[in-house]
Amino acid sequence: MTPVRIGFIPLIDCAGLVAAVGLGFADAEGLDVALTRETSWATLRDKLAVGAIDAAHLLAPIAVASKVGIGNPKPPFSALMSLSMNGNAISVSRALYGEMAESREFAAPDDLAGKGRAIAKVIAARKAAGAPRLTFAVVHPFSPHNYELRYVLGAAGIDPDEDVDLVVVPPPFVVDHLRGGLIDGFCVGAPWTSIGLQEGLTRVIAVKPQIWRFGPEKVLAVREDFAADREDVALRLIRAVKAGGAWADDPANRQRLAAMMAEPALLDMAADTIAGSLAGRVPLDDGPAETIADYVVFDRDGASFPWRSHALWFYSQMLRWGQVKHSAEAMRAAAGAYRPDLFRRAFAGTDVTLPGANAKVEGALAAPQPAGSTTGRLVLPRDGFFDGRIFDPDDVAGYASAFEVGKALR
Q1: Quick one: pLDDT band at residue 408, thresholds 50, 70, 90?
Q2: Low-confidence winner among 19-33, 174-188, 275-289, 358-372 (lowest mean pLDDT)
Q3: 247-276 burial, b if ≥16 CB within 10 A, otherwise e?
Q4: In the predicted model, what is the mean pLDDT of residues 376-400?
């Protein structure tokens, strides 16, 4: 058996890893996997960088940033596969939600544009009154959460670098920060959204499928030199974790998965809370929790494939918000963070469905659509952005510079 150390953050999108270990998929690949829980993404990143762990449940943009050469990690990371689509939500304090409601800019729970206008009105009123600016927490500067919150604010004409304060708070502590009055809202992954709701502290203003119907989130990452020097181990990891993700996607397995993830060494919280998040039971108003379709997806519909268009979308947001200067070299590096070549190699000669291409246009599908694949069985799901924009990976700079709010190429 080959020992492998994998770090993770207590979130439900580590489900594929938990299932791979708990159900024997890793054993079947000859891997003796030890899962180690970390509290913050920065710690997880640093442990991966120095080799204290072999692989990590990682925010996808951290892998992209490492390849581009921005941020702290010096060794480049490789994203072997995606671990999840969706799973995040933007929540605000009930006090802020009350201020937003007074604006009468929205009525329906799913009116995301209206909620953006309502936040803009609150910001304007506070500025006129000389009141402190709103403070929102994200989990890391290079995170889908940061870019999703900025996307929603920017669509409402709010400059997230000028009109509000953005701070970084690790996922397990966002609710504590809001309870203490240190922040007014946050964007975080499940199940921490549900914790804020259960404690009666928050209201959800947007879940990820409302922002980007089928958007990328976490990846299974290793150091680039690990992928090169120990490719056989990397390929076995991909096979084991994909099997775990496929099992975790099955609704029939949710209760067992929730019980596994509830263990003290993993998420260490009530299984019912985890099961509710896995099922997408998240209330968008004060009524009963709705079941949100595709609230979190691990493997199905091509979710685990490391699409290079996802890496390039994250790069486009780094451009948009001035985190990186655009160059052809940087763009190639960003795309290279995702490793569809290794994913394909892991399943060569099998009947696993693999896409015919490594990238696709994002946000263009209003309905499920068959796509070219090795088996003819791949159907891509709806994937639209809430503002109707479409991301063409062949025009990254044009996309990034087309937003009214942002810093790209100006």
Answers
A1: low
A2: 275-289
A3: bbbeeebbebbbebbbeeebbebebebbbb
A4: 96
Q: Is the full-model pTM beyond 0.90? A: yes
Contact 84/301 with Cβ under 8 angstroms?
no
Of 296, 249, 253, 303, the residue nearest 277 (C-alpha): 296
Tokens 């609704």 locate to 251
User: What are residue 218's DSSP bridge partners?
Assistant: 59
Mark residue 298 as left, alpha or beta (left: phi above 0; alpha: psi -120 to 50; beta: remaining): alpha
Q: Which of 343, 330, 335 is nearest to 309 (CA)?
A: 335
Contact in structure between 389 and 212 (CB atoms under 8 Å): no
Q: Where are the beta strands (DSSP E) in 281-381?
A: 281-282, 290-291, 296-297, 369-370, 379-380
SS3 108: coil
DSSP string, 168-223: E--GGGHHHHHHTTS-SEEEEETTHHHHHHHTT-EEEEEEHHHHBTT-B-EEEEEE
Q: What is the pLDDT of residues 286-336, one digit of tens each?
A: 777 789 999 999 999 999 999 999 999 999 999 999 999 999 999 999 999
Tens of pLDDT, residues 204-216: 999 999 999 999 9
d(CA 368, CA 371): 10
Q: Shortest CA distance to 90 belongs to which of 272, 282, 267?
A: 282
d(CA 149, CA 136): 9
* Long-range contact set of residues 372-379: C-beta below 8 Å, sequence gap at least 24: 375/351, 377/353, 378/301, 378/302, 378/353, 379/301
pLDDT at 109: 81
Cα distance between residue 19 and residue 23, in whole Å: 5
Query: Cβ distance 35 to 240 under 8 Å?
Result: no
Measured at the alpha carbon of residue 143, what is the angle toward residues 139 and 149, in degrees to the nearest 5? 80
- The stretch 182-208 carries a mean pLDDT of 95
Cα–Cα separations (whole angstroms), residue 211 to 140, 156, 385: 19, 13, 6
**How many angstroms separate the CA atoms of 39 and 44, rounded?**
8
Q: Which two tokens stand for residue 8?
A: 């993770």
**Distance (Å, rounded) from C-alpha 277 to C-alpha 189?**
10
**Contact status, residue 255 vs residue 121, Cβ threshold 8 Å:** no
Closest alpha carbon to 17 in 82, 70, 68:
82
